[in-house]
Design a protein that fits this description.
The protein is of the alpha/beta class. Helix content is 39%, strand content 18%. It contains 15 helices and 17 strands. Strand 2 and strand 3 form a beta hairpin. The longest helix has 22 residues, at 301-322.
Length: 400
């Protein structure tokens, strides 16, 4: 019997999080059990990470097999799993080259640095400005937190990085007013995740692409949360048929094992020459072995088409469940990145709803102040969807 308790967090961990008052210890598929053996249905997916649920046998086998071969060799050497994964990603996307790292923040850091280096090499040192959007989220490094459009994450850490501006999302006129010959890059989430699961409009992404072309600026799509099948296509840009110059991904890519990737075209990638960027653990054999298996499973018609089917099941069940309580004003998102916008009478009770759901055996997320976010496994069982919604309703009844 473990002597570890939730109170140990308050004694030993730097308090940058406010974790739930239970500790998950085991997971299988879309279910999790805590220290007391209590079962939860997981609609969080580890914040859109556990693309194939918990302890998927194929991922467990891939990890164990690689662990008995080679764990780490550093960037002084390459390795077979990394090369295999790079080929799979570039074959499946617009990209010619891949850079591997350990997280979405690192992938965005690499993307932003590459955009500035590309502009510097081609157009000179005056072309360094980056345009982001309000309420965006791109990571927690100094560069990415400055690029993200939420001051609560960047305030209090000293001077901001120079040359970064923020405009409203889905506002093409604002983007056109902000962009100039000094702009080296525009960074966008095809679906703003952390701020409320807000999809981009088709005309907006098309217009931003045209503006970037006009001003020789690179278009970066932050697909950390939307990539690797989350929206029902391998990457969200494929819904819009708008091709970025650089794309960042993480979360789903490793199915729970930490890995990030930056994808880009050959003529851009060459500006990251030897020594200009790097990471000790990026592209390590363990992470890449797992990610290869994730790609093999997710990038199939069965899984991707199943995401859309599950999306419809979720939307129908949520609308039916929420109607008697006037709970949701809108259900939005794509695939299995779903935002449930709370009505005015409920929007101040988001934290209460999440806690009540946990008390009734359901794990859910928040996105922005008034949105419940669901990002479950892409292969969640239909019975788990229905049971999870039933538990959600019980939680709402408890709050009446």
């Amino acid at each position: 019997m473990s002597t570890i308790t939730r109170s140990d967090y308050d004694h030993y961990i730097v308090p940058v999080y406010a974790p739930a008052n239970f500790i998950p210890v085991r997971g299988q598929g879309s279910k999790v059990w805590d220290q007391e053996g209590r079962e939860y249905i997981d609609f969080t997916g580890g914040i859109a990470v556990n693309v194939l649920g918990h302890a998927h046998p194929a991922l467990v086998e891939a990890l164990n097999t690689q662990a008995n071969k080679l764990w780490h060799v550093s960037n002084l050497f390459t390795n077979e799993p990394a090369l295999e994964l790079a080929k799979k990603l570039t074959d499946a996307t617009f990209a010619d080259r891949a850079f591997f790292c350990n997280s979405g923040a690192e992938a965005n850091e690499a993307a932003l640095k590459l955009a500035r280096r590309y502009a510097y090499d081609n157009f000179g040192e005056e072309k360094f400005e980056i345009i982001s959007t309000l309420n965006s989220f791109h990571g927690r490094t100094y560069f990415t937190v400055s690029t993200g459009g939420q001051e609560k994450y960047s305030k209090g850490f000293g001077p901001k990085i120079e040359g970064i501006s923020h405009v409203p999302y889905n506002d093409l006129a604002a983007m056109e007013a902000a962009i100039s010959e000094k702009t080296c890059a525009v960074i966008l989430e095809p679906i703003q995740g952390e701020s409320g699961v807000l999809p981009a409009e088709q005309a907006y992404l098309e217009g931003v692409r045209a503006l970037c072309d006009k001003y020789n600026a690179l278009l970066i799509f932050d697909e950390v949360q939307t990539g690797l099948g989350r929206t029902g296509k391998l990457f969200a840009y494929m819904h819009y048929n708008v091709i970025p110059d650089i794309l960042s991904n993480a979360k789903c890519l490793g199915g729970g094992f930490p890995i990030g990737a930056m994808l880009t075209k050959e003529h851009i990638a060459k500006h990251f020459s030897t020594g200009t960027h790097g990471t000790t653990y990026g592209g390590n054999p363990l992470a890449c072995a797992v990610a290869n298996k994730v790609m093999d499973i997710v990038n199939t018609p069965t899984v991707l088409e199943g995401v859309e089917k599950r999306h419809q099941l979720f939307v129908q069940a949520l609308e039916r469940m929420g109607k008697p309580y006037d709970l949701f004003s809108q259900i939005r998102g794509k695939g299995l990145l779903i935002g449930c916008v709370l009505t005015p009478q409920w929007k101040t009770r988001t934290s209460e709803i999440i806690k009540a759901a946990a008390q009734h055996g359901l794990m859910i997320l928040q996105a922005g102040p008034e949105v419940i976010r669901l990002a479950p496994s892409l292969i969640i069982e239909e019975t788990d969807i229905q049971e999870g919604i039933n538990r959600f309703e019980q939680a709402i009844k408890h709050l009446l």
